[in-house]
Amino acid sequence: MSDWQDHDFTGRELRRMFVHGADVRGSAIYDTRLRGVDLWDIDIHGDLKNVRVNGVDIAPLVEAELNRKEPNRAKMRPVDADGYRDAWSILEMRWAATVERAEALPEHRLHESVDDEWSFIQTLRHLCFATNAWVARMVLGDLSPWHPLDLPWDDAPGWDGIPWDRDARPPLDEVLAIRAERQGLVRGVLTDLTDEQLASTVTRSEPGWPQAQDLPVAQCLRIVLNEEWQHRDFAERDLAALADR
Question: Which of these, 137, 136, 229, 219, lies nearest to 184 by C-alpha position?
Answer without folding.
Answer: 136
